[in-house]
Design goal:
The protein has about 110 residues and is of the alpha/beta class. Helices cover about 15% and strands about 45% of the residues. The chain contains 2 helices and 8 strands, in the order βαββββαβββ. The protein has a 5-stranded mixed beta sheet with strand order 4-5-2-3-8. The longest helix has 13 residues. The two termini are about 20 Å apart.
């Protein structure tokens, strides 16, 4: 079972973004950095290729997720979804390892 899962909505919108920004074949970097109101901020970026030490997750045909091994324990079993509501549009992360997430959903503590 992959360390990180993407919902069908997330896959569809990731493919759309890859096409829109002419980045077909790029992978989704999923990680964390220090900062934010709860201690860490999630990172989601399109990157051309993994870097040394990355786990490469084949989320679907043609869709890869790059996960730094240092972040693996904090991000394992996370699900990346895409939401499109009146109040919010973009990727949303459901992380069972997270404690004390802030209200904006972009910052988390572990």
């Amino acid at each position: 079972m992959p360390t990180v899962k993407l919902t069908e909505n997330a896959l569809e919108n990731l493919r759309r973004l890859q096409t829109e920004y002419e980045m077909e074949g790029f992978g989704l970097r999923f990680g964390i950095v220090g900062g934010g109101c709860s201690g860490y901020k999630y990172v989601l970026e399109l990157e051309e290729s993994p870097v040394e030490g990355d786990e490469v997750i084949q989320a679907a045909p043609g869709v890869r997720v790059f996960l730094n091994q240092e972040h693996r324990d904090k991000l394992k079993n996370s699900t990346i979804d895409w939401v499109d509501t009146l109040m919010e549009q973009g990727f949303r992360i459901d992380n069972p390892q997270a404690k004390n997430p802030c209200g904006c959903g972009e910052s988390v503590d572990f």
